[in-house]
Amino acid sequence: MKKSLLIITVLIINGCTELQQVINQLPQGGISEVEIASGLREALNFGIEKQVSKLTQTDGFFKNQMVKILLPQELQKVDKTLRDIGLGKLADEGLKVLNRAAEDAVKEATPIFVNAVKGITFADAKNILLGTDNAATNYLENKTTTALYAKFNPVIKNSLDKVGATQVWSNIINKYNSIPLTNNVNPDLTDYVTNEALDGVFTMIAVEEKEIRNKVSSRTTDLLRKVFALQD
Taking phi first (over 0 means left), then psi (-120 to 50 degrees means alpha), and beta for anything else, what does residue 124 get? Predict the structure, then answer.
């Protein structure tokens, strides 16, 4: 009997030791769901400040292969036909002005994204923190895209006019429609560029989120270091 009690005691002591080792490996100091949510917002804001700001520069979209806006499906045949008949420069200009409109619009609309991040409420901040490399960005996108589209769309329309895209594409489409044996096209460029620009913004925010998640050196504030240490 004494021998059995001794064995049980040893097992309990060993179990407690192993449990204490596990506890010692967990981040200390305690952190609330509110702090985690604040850390996620800060990471998203860094994405806007450091990555989305790059999109507002000349060629921010056009020369960034991650987000460059290509022609919509219905205009790819227009592009090919124009190049086939020697109007390649016109086709190139048409592609460029779509990206210029997005660059201009993101510059105007950046406060929209900042406000969206400030207002977002994370339903389960801890699970998002412990999720995939772009979990916070995906959450932001799912929660805000509809509202952002409504605000972003008129900005895109103005930008298309501002950079001359509307006139360029009117000329392109009229040229194409005048070619014999072609079917007339009239795509909604504002809708297309709006969706592409939004996709580009979320892509760049995700780039920064991934950096913060995977590189300790990218956690440049106490809050980021404290929060993202939980997912290391």
Answer: beta
